[in-house]
């Protein structure tokens, strides 16, 4: 089997999950999030674009219900022993197959937690599932149960996070020589992704963000490439990925002499991220991180140019996003604990002056100060 962790690691994860299920008095969990299945069993596929679920009972037994195309995938990449196939057919309703399977597993009238908040659960599937199970069992929204267990990384996971961070650094090293007047965004992207793949990394869970000129103010990928001008700005957000574990970075790089506004915004980003480093430690919360960000940005008169979040937890994620549920935004009471991998980003988009500035990389929390995982300093980059 193509497993990235040893048997004891997976056994510990299953014990943690069943312990939480016992606390919530759950007889079973229906996992629809691919990252939950991957974390728990090693199961690695993009087949979650179709219906599939991993049933985990309170006694720790597991059964995967999936399509025939993923049968061998599950056998090869996971430790799941019991795999049941639902058959592709006209007007197929795999939730009916699921109900019958749950009945065979003696779960009629049980209390079952379901992962609803995931890209592996479409609205149509949710409606079909609720229709099948409403009179069959007690349904509980347990969308974040496994997600919260995944927040704190084991030493084996941290090794993959560190490798992902090294690959992210390699990507920036590959890009920098190409960022110049006349440089091609396509070549920059190819060099960055190529460095990660050549280094043994994976495709990221979402597209790298690249934009120059006015597009440097965008926070999402879009189609279309541009050639850099003599005076330009290039915003990049990317992540190294190793065994699906991500470490993200973000920079706005200036072509030519940085403007006064670029320097002002960079100073605000740098001051804020350094202040966050004093908060990104046990005893504080995710909300405290955001309040530090908002306070400094607002004191500098940048309230209308900043975002309403300044980072998030990272881990093993699948497309369409490498972002975890837990984000740095106002009111988030999630405690910061040691051994979390957290991406902190400063994003200032001044549309009035058509000026962008971003700064960010991934940290590993400790019992004290956080450890930056990038070898690149947080300096203003100008080419």
Order of helices and strands: HEHEEHEHEHEHHHEEEHHEEEE
Enter the CATH topology name of the largest domain. Creatine Amidinohydrolase
Number of strands: 13
Beta-strand fraction estimate? 15-25%
Low-confidence stretches are none
Q: Structural class of the helix and strand makeup?
A: alpha+beta
| Main sheet: strands, sense, barrel | 7 strands, antiparallel
Q: Any idea what the radius of gyration is?
A: 22 Å
The average pLDDT is 97
Assembly type? single chain
Number of domains: 2
The name of the CATH architecture of the largest domain is Alpha-Beta Complex
The amount of helix comes to 25-40%
What's the CATH class label of the largest domain?
Alpha Beta
What is the CATH superfamily label of the largest domain?
Creatinase/methionine aminopeptidase superfamily
Count of helical segments? 10
Distance between the termini: 47 Å
Give the overall silhouette: elongated
Describe the structure.
With 383 residues, the protein is an alpha+beta fold. It has two domains: 7-150, Creatine Amidinohydrolase, Chain A, domain 1, CATH 3.40.350; 152-382, Alpha-Beta Complex (Creatine Amidinohydrolase). It is 33% helix and 20% strand. It is built from ten helices and 13 strands. The chain has helices spanning 7-23, 34-41, 71-77, 94-104, 123-133, 145-149, 155-175, 185-198, 260-277, 286-299, and strands spanning 28-31, 53-57, 62-66, 82-85, 111-114, 138-141, 209-212, 232-242, 245-255, 311-313, 341-350, 355-364, 371-372. The strands form two sheets. Strands 7, 8, 9, 10, 11, 12 and 13 form a seven-stranded antiparallel sheet that branches. The protein has a six-stranded mixed sheet with strand order 4-3-2-1-5-6. Helix 7 packs antiparallel against helix 8 and helix 9 (260-277) runs antiparallel to helix 10 (286-299). The N and C termini lie far apart (47 Å). The model has no long low-confidence stretch (mean pLDDT 97).
